[in-house]
Task: inverse folding
């Protein structure tokens, strides 16, 4: 019997009927490897150990790994050394992630999120903030949605910076369709990341799950614009749960969620770009980045200092 590698084993466990992500993660963490959990699980269902490799979920998992490889998609189990370290810190850690693009450590990553139906002011604010972050060599993380997310990704790319899109669908899906070109550009010049199996469509549950991973991936979250029922509000809650700083403009205090969050530790209500960038710099220093790496490109004109 040939050994089953960790990626294949983890996928096979997730592909089993009735499998729950959290339960699979807990079992693998306790056992120390997905392969051992899979073999134990399959042996309970079969009197013939030599047939384990022929189990439907193992065959499907191997086919999926091969297909991903052919499409330039990396499959990373949380037991893999290349798995993003920052995601190991959160309760919602995905057992497997799929990535396309350049994979490397992103300790200097800040999420910029907000409403899909953003105002012109919100879009301008998102673009300007993401531009500043890119100039500081900070990775801009967002969710590839319309509105604020699109403005944030676009700004990072326009400034020659790195951006990571955390997706709410399978990594091979284009959603929204109008961001197809943007998604392909991010895959070429940054990275796409999904916790969902290839082919997975958008669902009501997938976007809050996406927000949890986006919060976990980033060292802090900046909410640019978000109403009472915005998905960005969900990410703000996750950021606090994850112990990540939450930054948002004072004008969001018109919303009840923002007023409630503003009283909590780790929340920074800012008035302008200077305060926003100063808060980001402080967080990056706290995250064990060196002050020397925080570039000098934080000088503002008088007009810029007190505006967005």
Result:
């Amino acid at each position: 019997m040939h050994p089953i590698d960790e990626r294949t084993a983890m996928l096979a466990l997730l592909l089993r009927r009735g499998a729950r992500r959290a339960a699979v993660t807990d079992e693998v963490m306790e056992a120390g490897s997905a392969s051992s959990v899979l073999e134990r699980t399959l042996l309970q269902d079969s009197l013939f150990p030599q047939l384990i490799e022929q189990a439907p979920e193992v065959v499907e998992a191997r086919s999926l790994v091969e297909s991903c490889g052919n499409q330039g998609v990396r499959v990373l189990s949380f037991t893999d050394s290349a798995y993003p370290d920052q995601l190991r810190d959160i309760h919602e850690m995905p057992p497997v992630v799929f990535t396309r693009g350049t994979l490397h450590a992103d300790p200097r990553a800040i999420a910029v999120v907000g409403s899909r139906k953003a105002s012109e002011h919100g879009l301008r604010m998102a673009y300007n903030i993401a531009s500043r972050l890119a100039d500081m060599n900070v990775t801009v993380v967002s969710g590839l949605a319309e509105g604020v997310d699109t403005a944030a990704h676009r700004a990072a790319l326009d400034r020659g910076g790195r951006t990571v899109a955390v997706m709410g669908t399978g990594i091979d899906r284009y959603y929204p369709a109008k961001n197809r070109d943007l998604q392909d550009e991010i895959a070429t010049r940054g990275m796409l990341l999904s916790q969902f199996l290839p082919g997975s469509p958008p669902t009501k549950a997938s976007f809050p799950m996406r927000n949890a991973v986006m919060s976990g991936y980033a060292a802090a979250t900046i909410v640019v614009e978000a109403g009472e029922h915005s998905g960005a509000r969900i990410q703000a809650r996750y950021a606090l749960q994850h112990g990540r700083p939450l930054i948002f403009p004072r004008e969001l205090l018109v919303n009840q969620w923002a007023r409630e969050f503003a009283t909590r530790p780790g929340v920074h209500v800012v008035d302008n770009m200077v305060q926003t960038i100063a808060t980001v710099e402080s967080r990056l220093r706290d995250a064990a980045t060196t002050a020397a790496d925080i570039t000098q490109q934080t000088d503002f004109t008088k007009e810029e200092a007190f505006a967005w």
